[in-house]
Automatic annotation (TrEMBL):
<feature type="binding site">
    <location>
        <position position="133"/>
    </location>
    <ligand>
        <name>ATP</name>
    </ligand>
</feature>
<dbReference type="InterPro" id="IPR003846">
    <property type="entry name" value="SelO"/>
</dbReference>
<feature type="binding site">
    <location>
        <position position="99"/>
    </location>
    <ligand>
        <name>ATP</name>
    </ligand>
</feature>
<feature type="binding site">
    <location>
        <position position="265"/>
    </location>
    <ligand>
        <name>Mg(2+)</name>
    </ligand>
</feature>
<feature type="binding site">
    <location>
        <position position="100"/>
    </location>
    <ligand>
        <name>ATP</name>
    </ligand>
</feature>
<keyword id="KW-0547">Nucleotide-binding</keyword>
<keyword id="KW-0067">ATP-binding</keyword>
<feature type="binding site">
    <location>
        <position position="274"/>
    </location>
    <ligand>
        <name>ATP</name>
    </ligand>
</feature>
<dbReference type="GO" id="GO:0030145">
    <property type="term" value="F:manganese ion binding"/>
</dbReference>
<keyword id="KW-0479">Metal-binding</keyword>
<feature type="binding site">
    <location>
        <position position="120"/>
    </location>
    <ligand>
        <name>ATP</name>
    </ligand>
</feature>
<comment type="similarity">
    <text>Belongs to the SELO family.</text>
</comment>
<keyword id="KW-0808">Transferase</keyword>
<feature type="binding site">
    <location>
        <position position="190"/>
    </location>
    <ligand>
        <name>ATP</name>
    </ligand>
</feature>
<dbReference type="GO" id="GO:0070733">
    <property type="term" value="F:AMPylase activity"/>
</dbReference>
<feature type="binding site">
    <location>
        <position position="274"/>
    </location>
    <ligand>
        <name>Mg(2+)</name>
    </ligand>
</feature>
<dbReference type="Pfam" id="PF02696">
    <property type="entry name" value="SelO"/>
</dbReference>
């Protein structure tokens, strides 16, 4: 579905806001999507479009495609690249920002919630640092598939609205098709956003960013913004701790590995974002990592909870003057808050395992034994949980534990709603992407349907439930696509 540049754009039947760009101009640089030689709408998430109040038919039109590429002057109020800093693999970089991304603006969905519409791969920006600002089709398709799978699994996440190819080849390891991902999130405010605001604008800018984030994400706290006190910002940070603890607990239950948990990839909303070198592991091993750029395993599966805690410690450092009437009070509050994170995470993990095992969360010893057995036996996590859900014979090593667990009369119906049949298994994703790059989308679309209906066996063939061949994960690596 192509479009021509000669056509004059028509106004869309909706309007975006520019709240971030207007309220925080110090953190926003105006921009627009680059021209594309032959844009084609490859994927459109029509259900999400409807949820946002966007007309799928209009989005498929030539003018709709121009909008999705960041070209139309309307209904865009002010497309911007966002500024942020970040610790990347533990090393602080004071100026990162959206090097290949644009925030088109915000829209209020049918539930009354504000959502960002955001492009990835839309061309160079002020933050490109010598890069081309473009995205390869393979990683864009990966993010579309995995983010939508995560949403279907009940994990807080950014969503994928569309994929557009540009008609241009770009050079990565080889010449590959370029593409633009249109994604949606409740905001794109990162830990790195606060690091940048603190570095460049001090506490005045940081307070404005915090107030913006409170209004966007924590409406129960926003009513206190007229008479803000240190306790407001203490409660704000505590809510971030809770959300991140619950998100990473869901990752742990599902065997998900983010792959690049820098502070610029950690959102204050608690949503998962930036599915570059992400993957789901099969054999349960704490030290598993797949990212080609994580050479030391900093962001391995078992490290993710502590890394999220480390990232949040970098966030609270930027908020210290807001947390108390004096520096000492602020520091004491920050230390007390960070001391809560471990308990919050373990409580959230207990809740997740209780759901997946169909029992209440009072059986702490049972859960701890189960985790020890996972570490000892390294089963395929997804297969094991679905085996328990469907009452099939457990794998060797779990027999006595299963007998003890069954005495609790687990709720199998509840288990069937949280333990997936289908996940984006690495070998299936790689095969589907390889064929998609050759122009054959059939396997990709079949896999997409299965993982977006993860609890329904009829959503895909039995082949899509099978783990990879022995040894596959030992050498498997994922790439961020830049």
């Amino acid at each position: 579905m192509s479009t021509t540049s000669e056509q004059s754009p028509t106004f869309a039947p909706f309007k975006l806001e520019a709240q971030f760009a207007t309220e925080l101009p110090e953190l926003a640089v105006p921009g627009h999507g680059e021209d594309t030689p032959d844009p084609t709408l490859l994927l459109l998430n029509e259900v999400l479009a409807e949820e946002l109040g966007l007309n799928p038919t209009w989005l498929k039109s030539d003018d709709g495609i121009q909008f999705l590429l960041g070209h139309n002057s309307q209904p865009l109020t002010q497309a911007v690249s966002q500024a942020y800093a970040g610790h990347q693999f533990g090393q602080f970089v004071p100026r990162l920002g959206d090097g290949r991304a644009l925030l088109l603006g915000e829209i209020q969905d049918k539930s009354g919630h504000w959502r960002d519409i955001h492009l990835k791969g839309s061309g160079r920006t002020s933050f490109s640092r010598g890069g081309d600002g473009r995205a390869a089709l393979g990683p864009v398709l990966r993010e579309y598939l995995v983010s939508e799978a995560m949403f279907a699994l009940g994990v807080p996440t950014s969503r994928a609205l569309a994929v557009l190819t540009t008609g241009r080849k770009i050079q990565r390891e080889t010449a590959v098709p370029s593409a633009v991902l249109v994604r949606v999130s409740t905001s794109h405010i990162r830990v790195g956003s606060f690091q940048y605001s603190n570095l460049t604008g001090g506490i005045e800018l940081t307070k404005r960013l915090a107030d913006f984030a409170i209004k966007r994400h924590y409406p129960a706290l926003a009513v206190r913004l007229n008479t803000p006190t240190p306790q407001l910002y203490v409660d704000f940070f505590r809510e971030i701790l809770k959300r991140q603890a619950h998100t990473v607990a869901k990752w742990t239950r599902l065997g998900f590995i983010h792959g690049v948990l820098n502070t610029d990839n950690t959102l204050v909303s608690g949503e998962t974002i930036d599915y570059g070198p992400c993957a789901f592991m099969e054999a349960y091993r704490e030290n598993t990592f797949f990212s080609s750029i994580d050479t030391q395993g900093r962001y391995s599966f078992g490290n993710q909870p502590s890394i999220i805690g480390w990232n949040l410690a970098r966030l609270v450092e930027t908020l210290l003057p807001l947390l108390g009437e004096t520096p000492d009070e602020g520091m004491t509050q920050a230390q007390n808050l960070m001391n809560e994170f471990g308990e919050l995470y373990h409580g959230a993990l207990l809740e997740e395992f209780a759901l997946s095992l169909g029992v209440d969360n009072s059986h702490k010893e049972l859960f701890e034994t189960f985790q020890n057995l996972l570490t000892l036996n390294s089963p395929d996590l997804t297969t094991l949980m679905r085996t328990l859900t469907e009452g099939a014979t457990p794998p060797p090593g779990f027999e006595s534990w299963v007998a003890q667990w069954q005495e609790l009369n687990p709720n199998y119906e509840q288990m069937a709603q949280v333990n997936p049949v289908f996940i984006p298994r690495n070998h299936l994703v790689e095969e589907a992407l390889s064929q998609a790059l050759e122009g054959n989308m059939q396997n990709y679309l079949q896999l997409l349907r299965a993982v977006t209906h993860p609890f329904d066996r009829t959503a895909g063939s039995a082949f899509l439930t099978l783990p990879s061949a022995p040894g596959f994960e030992d050498d498997f690596r994922t790439f961020c696509g830049t």
